[in-house]
Structure formats: C-alpha cells, structure tokens
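Hi team,

Filling in the usual template for the complex we talked about on Friday. All components are listed, including any nucleic acid strands or ligand strings, so the model treats them as one assembly.

SUBMITTER: L.P.
PURPOSE: interface mapping
COMPONENTS: four
RESIDUES: 682
SEQUENCES:
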Amino acid sequence: MTIKDIAEICNVSISTVSRAMNDAPGINSETRKRIMKMVDELNYVPNNSARNLKRTYSHMAAIMVKGFNNPFFQSMLPYFQKGFDDAGFQYIIHFINEEADEAYEAEKLVKEKKLRGIIFLGGRMQDPQVVMRRIQVPCVLCSVAGSYEEYASSPLPYVSIDDTEEAARVVDYLCSRGHRKIAIIAGRRDDTTVALHRLNGYRRALGAHGIGFDEDLVGYMHTDIPEYTEASGYAAAMDLLCRGREFTAFFVISDRMAMGVYKAVYDFGKRVPEDYSVVGFDGIESTRYMTPALTTMAQPAEKMVQSSVDMLMMQIEGEKVTKHELYQTQLCERESVKSLP
Amino acid sequence: MTIKDIAEICNVSISTVSRAMNDAPGINSETRKRIMKMVDELNYVPNNSARNLKRTYSHMAAIMVKGFNNPFFQSMLPYFQKGFDDAGFQYIIHFINEEADEAYEAEKLVKEKKLRGIIFLGGRMQDPQVVMRRIQVPCVLCSVAGSYEEYASSPLPYVSIDDTEEAARVVDYLCSRGHRKIAIIAGRRDDTTVALHRLNGYRRALGAHGIGFDEDLVGYMHTDIPEYTEASGYAAAMDLLCRGREFTAFFVISDRMAMGVYKAVYDFGKRVPEDYSVVGFDGIESTRYMTPALTTMAQPAEKMVQSSVDMLMMQIEGEKVTKHELYQTQLCERESVKSLP
DNA sequence: TTGTATGCGTTATCAC
DNA sequence: GTGATAACGCATACAA
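RESULT (copied from the run log):
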C-alpha cells in the first residue's frame, strides 16, 4: 500500500495525495476530505524512509540519552516534552548504552531523520571540537561530562552543573555538620565522566578543610556490576565498611546508589544517620520515599532542560550560541545526616 | 557526502562501494580495503533512509515498550540484548508513552525500518486480531494486558503471567500468614490493563477465602500523578489509611509503588511490618534494598524475555506459532510481612 | 486546483 | 570482479 495505490483508488495523482497528507496549501478541501477518508479506511501509513529521503528539512530534533538506568535523566524527560511542544517541534528520544559512540549515533540519526538539532544527555564527549563538524546540525550538551576548563574553549553550547564545585559543596555541608571523616562512594576506578569530577571535588574540598585525602575512604563501583545501580552502591559501600577505617559520613555520587548504601549500612549492623550520615546527589523524586529520607544535592532538572531546549532553538533559528550555562544545585536537607558536636 | 562521492574519490563505481560497505561477496579484497579506508577517513555514513527504502529485508527487530517508568521492563532490557545477540539479530528499543497507539507506531516503524518482527512490551492490545493484519510481520506480545479468555482465541503469540491468578496468590499468601483484612493499592479507576486483572485476582481470592470485598480497602492511583511511581503509591496508600478502615496488610500491584506505601505508613505514624504488612509485585532488584526488604511476587523476567525472542525468531524463520506462554511468578519472602496469630 | 516529471541515496539486477 | 541502471516511495518544482 503506497501513495500510488491511494492515488489510483481516489482517481487523483500522487501529488494530490501527497498534498492532502501534508496539509499543503492549494488543494480543494473536498478533495482532501475524500482522500483522507480513503487513507483512514485503507489504513495507509506513508513510508517514513521515503519521506525523510526526500524532505529537505523537518521540524524534528532528538535527545540522545546515554545511561539507560539513570533515573535523573528519566526525570528530565517530561520537561523536554513540554519544552519541545512549546517550541512547536517534534522530537525523538534515543537511548544508547554506555559503550556506544554518541557522536556516531547522532550523525546517523541526523542523516536518517533529517534532524534539525540534537541534545546530548549524559555521557562524555571525547572531542567536542570535531563533533559539530560531523553532526552538521546545532547541538547542545546537557549534563555531559567535562570540567569547565575542558569545554571553555569549545564552541559547543552546554548546560550542566559544575560537578567538581557541587561535589565540594556536599563536603562543605558535611563539615558544617561536624563531620571530618567523610567517605565517598565514587564511580569506577577508570571513570572519566561526571563521577571523576565529583571525586575531584571531594578531594579538593577535603583539602580546603584541612582534611587529608585517604584512599581507603573511597569506595569505587565494581566493574562487574551495572553502573549507578543500588547494587553497585551496596557493593562499594560494603567494601568500604569492611576495611575497618573509621568514618562518620558517606557522600554518594548518585541517589540511586544511596539506596544500596543504606542497605549496606544496615547489613553491617549500623544505622543511618545515627552511625553513618549519608548525602546523595541528583535529587530524584524517589529519595523522598527512602527511610530515613535522603539528604541530597538536587540538580535543577527543569531549568536545565528548558535552557537546553532554548539554546537549541536559538541555534536552529540562526543565532550563534556558544554559551556555557552552569547551574547550581540545591541542598535538600532531609533526615539522613546527623549533626556532630 | 554520499556513496557517489566515495565512488568518485576511489575511482570505482557506486555498486562497488555498496558491495564494500555491505560485506557483499564478489569483490576484490584489496579494493574493499581501499574503499573502507577512504570511508573511514572521510567519515562517510550511509544514509539509512535510502538504505531502508531500497533494502528488501533487514536483520532487525524492535521492542516496543509502553511505560517509560516501569522498572520491571527496564530490568528486562539486558536479557533482550542477550537474546537478540544470540539470534544474530539487531534490534531497536522504541519507547512510547501511555497515550500512544502501539499498533500504529509499530506499523510505522516496520515500514520505515523494514523490520522483520516486533515484540510488544506492556500496554494493552485493543484488538489483537487486527494488529497482525496491519503489522504484516511476526509479533509477540510480552506482558501485555489481557486475560486468558481474551487472547485464547487470538492467533497472536504472547508470553506473560496470569495476572489474575498471580494476584490471587498474593492474597492466598497473606491469608496463610493470618491476614484477613487486606487492602490493595490498585491502578486507576478506569484501568483496563494488568492493574485491573490484579484487582480482579484480589477480589476473587478474597471470595475464595470467605472474605467480603470492601471497596474502602481499595486504594486507586490518582489520575493526576504519573502511574506506577512512588508518589502514586504514596497518595493511594495515604487515602486508604485516612479512611480509618481497619486492616493489616497491603497488596501493592507494583514494586515501585510499594516504596511510596512504606512512606505513607511511616508518615501515618505506623510501621512496616509491625502495623501493616506489605507485599509488592514484579520482583525488581531495588526491592532488596528497601527497609524492611520487600516481600514480593517476582516475575521471571529472563525466562519471559527468552521465550519471547524464541517465539519471534521461530516465526521469522517461517514456523507458525500461536502459543500462549503463561509463566508463574515466584514469591520472594523477605521482611515486610508479619505473621498474624 | 491538479497533474507530470525529477531526484533524494541507496541496493539489486543485470550486463560486461 | 566490476559497472550501468532501474527501482524503492515519496515531496516538490513546474507545467497545465
């Protein structure tokens, strides 16, 4: 069933059918009605490949999400919906897994769908410089790994938080509550993404407070457990606990892992926050439902999304934007941190 | 940059480039190497739309997931990866939201990508009969709503659990622990998917145990809160608690909601399982990390996935399969249920 | 307002 | 082993 079949059945040419299907101007409304009725009846669905091949441009953008099981990204999705709806753009969400090369995937998608723009969510740009050249359409990096210095010279606009800085603030907060021996549940040992930046921030803040960095207070994610899951948080925390080093608080670099940390503490025969305080990172909804409710650094998901969409649309409309938007996190004080004398 | 450019640069015809790109037989391996080197250097990416338009068939299937925030489906994804890899098939995962029409989306996707088969995950088939006629390629329904009776006559193969039966087993279990006044956290009032079946199972089991059905012991999800989230579980449970009816246990139709139920119980000044027992449904990993660890009915995700993939591949290979595979859940007894005298 | 013709970038089918 | 060339299904410039 192609456009040709419909044309024959309706006794019109294929261009007329095409016009009807695309709400094109210059077609008798009776003809259109007649055609659309047939289309509906015969259940004709135009072939998107042919469409995309022919079309000069679309009104479509894409969000390329790296991190299937990152609930923070998931929480952003509804805001993207709103943002693109308001902008009158359609969009597709494309998930890729950790090993995939986002730049390559993006390039394919752009060509296939004649995308007008693309927003990268998560992951890490190995070489932001070349990405743009390859992609050929405007992009925005959102929550993509990279220190300020790293991207400062890049023409790629991005919105994110300063992971180093914000991680440092977590340590500052814990110190303000009297904690001095602070452990961190970090990424994998070889991580080069946000996990590394948060670890760096932790180190830096420790130094600023005159506390020595102790490698034994770092719990790395295991390489054989899916990243950023409860299980990975549990394993890393259990490692730490079993080392026997003394400490009073956990800084967990992602909320979902914090749930595993809670469990590890309990299984170790201790309690949160009486024996160990815990601070998470991201500010996802479900942390409200943990017991005790998790104190966490919340990223302003809605603002970050709106800003990303705005920056993309501005570029699509021809403006040159190379802005680097860094948002601040907000501390959500709940019940998982105990004040020390 | 098209196949034509590559051909010109390499001084060969486009057919030769095509052959090189597709590992086609009948091409000098030196020529291929030379071409591929150029392709790599110039970063040429073939246009998928053109490919899909022309190709007679692919080695690709799709999984159409309805339910962005259903962690049970998410937990199935790695198994699909394994299943399709073993079968030598590529696949794409396509998420659609609750309002979308999966049959229509599938039809579009099949045409666009020349898919060989499609697995539906979640949602509800309004009319399984017509779906096949429209889709034109083999499909398998996995965890799609529908009672046994409903699909019994359908030629569409599906794998799932008997939601009614398994929900009844939860009630049986609670009764065996001495509970008689059992509340349920159900779907929305107008639900017609698995949530309804689980509610029906609950009713049926109640009857079998000589317990009257009490509408006041049903907590429906609010329509203004995203389905199956912690927040929806919390709201529904709070409703229930505030009604003042006496009861001793919650049957929560999905694990993620159970987390909200815990919180509601605590906020109400009660404890799990001392004051209220809780049983979840799905068996997702994170339930292990709840405190107390959630007792839940686990669906055999891996088996269900493997079975779905097998049934799809069999069909693709030409066999006619109309099997209806119903799996049993397994009770994971943990710490959230108290035995009553 | 409608129809005709062309080409989008690729694969498939021939010839050579 | 390689090269022409005809589709694939559609949108669109142009003619009618």
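MY TAKE: Residues 2-4, 14-15, 18-19, 21-22, 24, 46-47, 49-56 of chain A lie near DNA strand D (CB under 10 Å from a C1'). Residues 71-87 of chain A form the longest helix (17 residues).

Thanks, L.
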